[in-house]
Every structure is written in C-alpha cells, then in structure tokens.
Design goal:
Blueprint lengths: L7 E4 L6 E10 L3 H8 L9 E6 L5 E10 L9 E9 L1 H13 L3 E2 L4 H8 L5 H12 L3 H11 L2 H25 L10 H30 L1 E6 L6 H11 L10 H6 E6 L2 E7 L9 H15 L3 E7 L5 H8 L7 E6 L1 H4 L4 E3 L2 E3 L8 H12 L13 H21 L6 H19 L7 H8 L5
Parallel strand pairs: 1-6, 7-9, 7-10, 10-11, 11-13
Antiparallel strand pairs: 1-2, 2-5, 3-4, 4-5, 8-9, 12-13
The structure holds guanosine-5'-diphosphate (GDP).
The site of guanosine-5'-diphosphate (GDP) has 15 residues, from helix 8 and helix 12.
C-alpha cells in the first residue's frame, strides 16, 4: 500500500438536513475508532444496527454501521461508514468523536485519492467520480459513469498496448540485426501505425465532444434593447422543461442562465445585464462575466429582421471579435420572411416560435455535439492535451518509419513518448513493459 494511511474521517453526505447522513472513516488501523464509537467491530460488509456513542458512553445517534476491511473497500484501506440521521449537528458530533479517537479530518477528495494510490481506481476513473458528482445533465452523468467504470481507461490501454507492441518490434529489429529477422516489415509497421492513429483520432473526437458536454456550451446574447433577446431566451429555455439551476451569485443570476438542448447544457450570458455600475459587488460580478464572455463559444447577435440600425453595430461592438457569431434576424412574423439558417445568419420569430428548431439544431451543430453518440468520453483539458501529445508523437514516428528516410531509433523514441502521453491519462508512470513484451514474444534463448 502506498501513501499515507493515517485514519481520516469526514461527513460524506451533503450539508444541510436529510433523511440520513453518512460519516466515513478510512485508515490502515481504525479498530480503536470503531470500538470507541460502536463498542465492537461489525461483521464485514453487512449492515449492522448500532448505537454510536460519545466518550462517556452516551448515545449520539443510532443507525447502520458498515465495515469494509482492507483491501476490499473503496479506498483499499479499512473503511467504516456510519449511516445516521442526516442533521448537521448530529453528524458533526459523530465526526468530532472520530477525531477524538485519533482520526483527522479528510482533505477534499482524499478518500478517492487513497483509492487511486492503492490502485483501486486509475486517474481517469477517479476523475470520472468527480465528473459524475458534478454532472449538469443526464447525458454528462452517463458519460462520467462510463469513465468511472473504466471505459475510457480501457480504450487508452488498448491504444497503448498496440503502440508498445509496435515499439517492441522496432526495438527488436534494432537489437538483433544479425538475426536477419525482418521483424519489421516496414510497410506493415506503417499500416499498423496508421490504424492506431485512426483509432486515436476517433477517441480524440469523442473526447472533444465529452469536454464540451462536461463544460457546457457558452453563448453570449447581444443586441440593442427590444430586439427580442429575453423572448428568445425564454423560448429556448421553455422548449425543454429541464431548466438547469441558475449559477449562484446574485449578480450573475441576472445575466446568466443555463438551458438544455438535447441533453447539452448551454450557458447563456445576457449582455443586457452588463450595465455600468458603481456598486462594488456588482462590478466584481460584471468583470467576471466579461472574462467569461471573452471565453465564450458563440455570440448570438439579435437584430430586428429588415431593420438594421447603427445601434445594432454598437451593441455587438462590445463583444470580442474573436468569438464566432450568429446574427439572429428576429421578428420575421412582421416582415413575412421565411424562417431558416443561412451561413452565419438565422431568421426566426421569438413570438411565434417559427425557426426556433433551426436555431437549436444550429447551436448543437456549432457545439460539436450534434450527432454525438452515447459513447462520448467525458474529458478534461489534460486528457485532450495528452491525446494531442500522443497524436503528435505518432505522426513523428510515422515520418521516421517512412522508407525514404527511415530512422528506427527515432521512431521508437516517438512511440515511447506517445505511450507516456497515454500513461498520463491513466496516471501510470514509468513502468517499462517493453522488455517483457520482447522476451515474451521471441525465443531469445534458442
Ligand atoms: P429585449 O429587450 O431584447 O430582451 O426584447 P424583449 O424580448 O423584451 O422583446 C421586446 C418586444 O418585442 C416585446 O414586446 C416582445 O413581445 C416583442 N417581440 C419579441 N420577439 C418578437 C417577434 O418575434 N415578433 C414580434 N412581432 N414581436 C416580438
């Protein structure tokens, strides 16, 4: 077992009142803590009714105790869960009792960190745990659950194993040239590399979609007063009953709303909320919103169909030019134009709803999630970076395998770098399985 294993304790359920509340304890040696609270060590992995007592033996609560002896627990250490009544005071008394008996309060994520250090989860799975808890849509939750189950890690492992195998062949060719074994039929090596690259490209695409699914798609709503921005937002939000909770913070509530389009969270920042202010708190909120606008994915610039005013340009001028734009020509019910999407412009009526479906599809398309299957990979920046690193190294390796200027050492080195990049994702470092791979495949002692 690696890492610290001093006993830690925390209230594992959310703050506030609830039907039940759980205090979780983990450590290499927690027998004294268990006996101190419930008087005996419960039968492993069975729900045991118990009274939880303070130092004087006075009951704090009565509930279920669950004991998971190492290594068959979430953290890989001995774990005790106390399921009591979900009140903040009673849970805090239980936590204090555990601390009195030698536990220290767990740091954020420390149980999962221990699970990782004890090889219960790899890094991508551990991140899946956090993503499942943080999921803002059912679709993101399903994707996080797949990562937690190890689906992403397994895909990475398959890619990495294929690379290792290819690298073993290349190294064998370098190490035993006198055997004149053409381990490396070059054309075949290149084909294999090409196929790994194609598989990686598919993973990259699904990861990009998953990164978008995880972070949501941020849209800025701009336009002069009365063009129909609020009407449009309400219509978009109302189309699907599930309106995601507003982002907390008083000022931001006024300017940002999250809506759902086909299971994707779209954060809409309404620039109407960005007024000049002397209120310091509001000013901080507005400055933060402006920073978010600078990072937004798309601007929806709303204008009145058939009526371009100088104020329209002024309204859009405050939005950074670098952000892609869609011009929404609203109120087509008044001009008689037909609804539709045409390049960067959309014609619709927020009053009648005509054209709104086209806008939704266009938003999905621009988010990159249109047509995304259920196999999106919930991803973070570091995953995307690692996948890019791997792709770059694989490209370089392919170049060194080119028959015109073959440099096998360099190809092997690039494949090693690609392998390292994959290892970054699952958090496995260093282990060089290459020799085993070579000796396992060839009868060297013959
Ligand atoms: P905002 O100031 O840009 O947020 O605009 P509002 O959404 O408050 O709309 C301003 C006015 O335009 C309201 O009276 C709306 O009912 C009206 N409006 C909004 N969209 C349409 C539309 O598509 N057609 C028509 N005829 N009126 C609209």
């Amino acid at each position: 077992m690696r890492g610290d294993s001093d006993p830690i304790a925390a209230v594992a359920t959310a703050g506030g009142k609830g039907g039940i509340g759980v205090v979780r304890i983990s450590g290499r040696d927690i027998q004294a803590v268990i006996s101190g609270i419930i008087g005996r060590v419960p039968v492993p992995r069975a729900a045991t009714m118990a009274t939880f007592r303070d130092a004087a033996g006075v009951p704090i609560d009565r509930g279920l105790a669950l004991y998971f002896p190492a290594p068959h627990s979430y953290t890989g250490e001995h774990v005790l869960e106390l399921h009591g009544h979900g009140g903040p005071v009673v849970l805090n008394l239980l936590l204090q009792r555990a601390i009195e008996l030698g536990c220290r309060p767990a740091a954020p994520g420390e149980f999962t960190q221990r699970a990782f250090l004890n090889d219960k989860l790899d890094l991508a799975q551990a991140e899946g745990v956090a993503d499942l808890i943080d999921a803002t849509s059912a679709r993101a939750a399903r994707a996080a659950m797949r990562s937690l189950d190890g689906a992403f890690s397994r895909e990475i492992a398959v890619l990495r194993d294929r690379l290792v195998e290819l690298r073993a062949l290349i190294e064998a060719t370098l190490d035993f040239p006198e055997e004149e074994i053409d381990f490396l039929e070059r054309a075949q090596a290149a084909t294999r590399l090409e196929s790994i690259k194609a598989a990686l490209a598919a993973v990259q695409e699904r990861s990009r979609q998953g990164a978008r699914l995880r972070a949501g798609f941020t849209v800025v709503l701009a336009g002069r007063p009365n063009v129909g921005k609020s009407s449009l937002l309400n219509l978009l939000a109302g189309e699907e009953a599930a309106i995601v909770t507003a982002v907390p913070g008083t000022t931001r509530d006024a300017v940002e709303r999250s809506i759902m389009i086909d299971g994707m969270v779209v954060n809409v920042i309404d620039t109407a909320g960005l007024r000049e202010t002397t209120d310091q708190v509001e000013a901080i909120g507005i400055a933060r919103t402006r920073r978010e606008i600078a990072r937004a994915d798309l601007v929806l610039h709303v204008v009145e169909a058939g009526c371009a005013l100088p104020e329209d340009r002024a309204a859009a001028a405050g939005i950074p030019a670098a952000i892609p734009r869609l011009t929404i020509h609203n109120k087509i019910d008044m001009t008689g134009e037909t609804a539709g999407v045409d390049g960067d412009s959309v014609r619709l009526s927020a009053l009648s709803g005509d054209g709104i479906a086209g806008l939704r599809t266009e938003l999905l398309r621009r988010s990159g999630l249109e047509g995304a299957g259920e196999d999106v990979i919930i991803s973070r920046e570091r995953h995307l970076n690692a996948l890019n690193q791997a792709a770059t190294a694989i490209d370089a390796a392919a170049m060194h395998l080119d028959p015109a200027h073959t440099a096998l050492e360099l190809a092997a080195e690039e494949l090693r770098l690609a392998q390292q990049a994959f290892n970054l994702i699952t958090g496995e470092f260093g282990a060089d399985d290459l020799l085993g791979e070579i000796f396992g495949r060839f009868c060297i002692g013959k």
